[in-house]
Amino acid sequence: MKITITDLKNLCKFSLASGNAVIPFISFMYLGDENLVSLKSFSLISGSLFMAMASQAFNQVIEWKQDKIMTRTCNRPIPIQRLTRLQGGMIGFAFYAASNLLMYNYLPSNAVLINNLIFFSYLGIYTTLKTRSPVNTLIGAVIGALPVVLGAACVDNDSLYNLGMWGNFGFMFSWQINHFYGIYWKYQKDYLRAGFKMVNDSAVASKHMKICLGINGLSWFGTASQLSQPELKFISCISGLLSLYFWNYRAIKLFEVDPNKNANYLKQASYYFFLVYYTLLLLDIGIKRYQQKQIH
């Protein structure tokens, strides 16, 4: 059977992988002074994209039985036999090799190590834990925040200790908790039928999200404190407070009233929250680059 572009996109979850590639790139631009268009920038965004695509491909090779059972994943290429597991693995390995080749030649060695750490921890720890322990959600959120560290490692070692970097890391970690619980409660029966071990007590999930609400607040202000534009620092703090209330706290309270009914709102609110946060970061990056260009 001929492999199509659609098969590749679905196997590697191209949209999700693209989002994963943008996060380290924004972290890199936020913490460093590299030009937007440069060999280093290209190597980071393409290398992280290929690694994310590889991890998604191998994940589907590993979880093909669960994917076949779940309504939301049963039409992926391997369950419907558009691709074999061997073909999926070969495609995943090709992207994995391409990622390492790009990064090894143009980026610091610690960036290559972190990129591989994300790959192997995602498949070896998170994917394994999904069928064994509900702690997988918290572990997955830590792994999902590591692309921020990857971007920092591409700047210099000092950036790994930057308050803004850790603010960005904390935001990504805590954001993923709310986002995932929104997805999980929407498709809870699907996950249970496939044998995934998740937090099924909505009170426990709510407690997790409230802790993350505090982490989100501290992280937002940590990131804002390192913005280059004083005006944006103020705007970011105000935006953070409003976003925490309207798209975080309120979403959690609605979830507590009826988890199944309000799960979709929890998920959608997380997108708005994410959008505001990264729009402010991108604004700061754009202004800083413009000012640098004017000086030179």
TrEMBL record:
Q: Which Gene3D superfamilies match?
A: UbiA prenyltransferase
Q: Which GO terms describe its cellular component?
A: membrane; mitochondrion
Spans traversing the lipid bilayer: 12-30, 42-62, 83-104, 110-128, 135-153, 165-184, 269-287
Q: Which GO terms describe its molecular function?
A: protoheme IX farnesyltransferase activity
Q: Name one GO biological process term.
A: heme A biosynthetic process
Q: Where in the cell is it found?
A: Membrane
InterPro entries attached to this UniProt entry: Protohaem_IX_farnesylTrfase (IPR006369), UbiA_prenyltransferase (IPR000537), UbiA_sf (IPR044878)
List the Pfam families.
UbiA (PF01040)
Keyword Hydrolase present in the record's keywords: the answer is no
Identify the keywords attached in UniProt to this record, alphabetized. Answer: Heme biosynthesis, Membrane, Transferase, Transmembrane, Transmembrane helix
Q: Classify the protein's membrane topology as the record does.
A: Multi-pass membrane protein
Please report the name of this protein according to its UniProt entry: Heme O synthase
Query: Origin organism of this chain?
Result: Paramecium tetraurelia
The uppermost taxa in this organism's lineage are:
Eukaryota, Sar, Alveolata, Ciliophora, Intramacronucleata
